[in-house]
Amino acid sequence: MSGKIVLLFFVALFFAYQPCPAEKCCFTPRDISTDSMLELSLINYHRYHSLDTHKLSFYAKPFFTETRYLERTQAGMIFTAYSFVTQSVWLGINSAAMGSKVDTNSAGGIDDIQFKLGYDLLKIQDSHATVYLVATAPTGKTICRCPLNYPSIGSKKGSLGFGINLDTVVGEIGDYEFSWEFDLKYRHTFNPYAFFSPRNTIDLWTALNFPIYNFNLELGYDFWWQQSCRHSISASQKLYGDLGYVLKKNSYSVLLGLGAAYEFATKNALEKWIVWFTCGLDF
User: Which of 2, 21, 46, 209 is least crowded, fewest Cβ atoms below 10 Å from its Cβ?
Assistant: First the structure.
């Protein structure tokens, strides 16, 4: 019996290190719905600092992005929602209704849907710490998404992972405190055409948020790393700025914002600029 288990282990190990199928593109572009910067810019601070107690948060982000050196554009609306199940447990969902165009080819649809289940380890006035599980549901029609000639939306690959999110006041400017925001997310993607082949993604996001009167200025950085195949690595870095306005009432808070970013291709990635508008309601 033990010999069969050892044999099965080595068979699984053999398939785990098989290269990607020939029909699959080893380069996979970054999804909009799992982009931590687009999900969290201004929103992360607003969730923790807008109201003393809140149960529901809804956000919408119209966006436009254009890839440098290529005639490739994307535009649409990102939808994000958070709901507290208890005082410490929350659910989050994030996706995008969007269109993509490459040269004369175009496509539209719903991007992959991201789900989060989080638990607040620390939640006081000046500091918050959260751990969460993350999963994505595929919405695409093709496994291969070669961005140079086909403007596909979503993928046919699900993923599971985990992350940590931090928010804390780190200093003062006059009478105003500014906060440090941080999120680190890891996901493992499951590819039905190469089940044991490694598919790992790491997304690190960090920012400083400066509240002045009813305004918020946020400056941040995002690092993305993806292992598409055993020998294929993609990586990029983003710098961004986001200016928000917050209107607070006793039972709700409204967020409006305008942001822009530039993504630098570190390795096998697309270099592009992005602009977006944020509108949200927390109550």
Answer: 2
**CATH, residue 75:** 2.40.160.40
Which contacts of 68-71 are long-range, i.e. CB under 8 A and separated by 24 or more positions? 68/270, 68/271, 68/272, 68/273, 69/271, 70/102, 70/147, 70/148, 70/270, 71/101, 71/102, 71/103
Domain count, the chain: 1
Residue 43 three-state SS: helix
Cα separation, 77 vs 62, in Å, equals 4
Tell me the backbone φ, ψ of residue 16, rounded to 5 degrees: -65, -25
Q: CA 66, CA 80: separation in Å to the nearest integer?
A: 22
pLDDT in tens, the chain (283 residues): 544 443 443 443 333 334 444 434 445 678 899 999 999 999 999 988 876 666 889 999 999 999 987 788 999 999 999 999 998 999 999 999 999 988 888 889 999 999 999 999 998 888 999 999 999 999 987 655 554 566 778 888 889 999 999 999 998 887 888 999 999 999 998 766 554 454 789 999 999 999 988 999 999 999 999 886 666 788 999 999 999 999 988 788 999 999 999 999 888 888 999 999 999 998 8
- For residue 108, the enclosing domain spans 2-282
Q: Note the pTM of the prediction, 2 decimals.
A: 0.86
Q: What span, in angstroms and rounded, lies between the C-alpha atoms of 111 and 33?
A: 6
